[in-house]
């Protein structure tokens, strides 16, 4: 006599009331996977609008006896019209959760500085709202750290949520709310957050009953297959952070198997660049491998069994297997034997319900497997450089930029449109290398490291219709180079251009303002033909030591105004032949000490007006032959001290008068004769006294008129008369 009540099925479509009789049921559900159900049902309604049922809410209640039963809520995703039987329309309902409908929402978008919980909440809130569904974050503690950058790229909303939860080690199950008749996606990250399965006797214990399980008082397990297999025992995770390039980011989690053997999986890449989470990811990988090493597969008639519930096994031959387990997968099959369309019993026991399940020991650290593929984009794409309004160059201390990708649904073209992206340069050293920062509005080429959209890298720039090349094409197709743009405001540029047209080759350099060249050692410059230098204003040249220059032919120079040359020590000029100096006005020459002028042949000086020569101390003139001085009018000579003139013969001739004056004595001395000749008169005048003296003889003339003639003998001869007059004439 059977003690277990049969399983009954009740189907409801709230939007389309009507009587439906369930004939067959197949349900597949698992942790971290959306469930699916196939429900065959019959109705006596005449010509029901089955198409209108597509997308409608559907509720299946599985009940054993008078218990509360198990409810499955979902959406009708497909309807199969199976025909008529005994005046009943037979329909097959394909049932999905609203979460799986998110597979049909594919998007490409970016999140910055948000946690996985924030991103998942946003995506699920948007996607489930149209279906009046909700989700429950539960009490999960994982996924709260913000990610620097997270990209959904050509990825469905469902795949994005699944991938992020798997990366963070967060599981999910579905709770079917009997009050709202809606399924609720519920997140879990700890085993203690899972509920207990309740058998019909109110306990969480499920016995193994192999024979006649329908005669038992409780639901039971008919098959229990314990499997243990070799899996990896450890995980090593490694990554690279450009902010600490010399630091190896590495973490490992490993433990040998029962035979003290290790099997480690080494993986690299995939960091989220806010926190170093390698240790957590290594542990999750290890725990996931250990979880798959102990698997239970079984069969039961427990109608309340679903993933995310735990139970305690009893009645097993092996006492060590009588422990607590967590259900991870269940496949339900059933039929309403009395209804139309159920000609055979799908259950193994003859009942209208059975299931197969997978479970794991509850003491295992349950983490979702990484099964959702990450989006990959291996080819380059372009984007527009963005930044704040009013700025032309927007970068940070690392030379990174932000961009707007064309595939974003609602582009902002503003600062923060992407994460800060590093830019590839032709050279990048420790404070040296190349530096070209793409500017706002430029179109740049973006590639993704290892194809990961979360790791963009700018690798170049391209021109477009708004930003054409600097040298007009195809006219200037032989030109290559760089032209920059002054910032802010534009209007100016610096340019280095190479012209490769045959016979017109040229290197062109343009600076909008200043040009500074600094050479630490030597500079060599060779010009094969002509060189032309034009400086619009001032030019300063400073040579720390020597300067030499050599001109093979002529040198010409022109100074529009003044020229000043200061030589700290010696100056030498060597001219092979002639030299001509032309000075339009004045010329001054100052020599601090000595000056020597040597002329091999003749020296000729011509002064148009006056000429002054000032010698602070001595002046010596040495002339090998003749010296001629010609003065057109007057000549003056002033000697503050003594003057000595020595020559072989000296002749001074004036065309008119000639005067000699001395403030004190005037001495005329000759080693031999002195002759004074006057064609007319000779006057010798003294204000006080005049003395003519020769040896012992003298003639003295005094101002009072006295004349004294002294001598040994005095002879007065006259060819004519000799007249002696005086007031008194005395004789010896």
UniProtKB/TrEMBL annotation:
Xref: Pfam families: Gp5_trimer_C, Phage_base_V, Phage_GPD
Xref: InterPro entries: Gp5/Vgr_OB, Gp5_Vgr_C, T6SS_RhsGE_Vgr_subset, T6SS_Vgr_RhsGE, Vgr_OB-fold_dom_sf
Biased composition (Basic and acidic residues): 578-588
Domain Gp5/Type VI secretion system Vgr C-terminal trimerisation: 480-585
Ranges of biased composition (kind: Polar residues): 475-487
The organism's place on the tree of life at top rank: Bacteria
Domain Gp5/Type VI secretion system Vgr protein OB-fold as annotated: residue spans: 394-463
Region named Disordered: 370-390, 472-495, 569-591
Family as reported in the entry's similarity comment: Belongs to the VgrG protein family.
Protein name listed in UniProt: Phage-related baseplate assembly protein
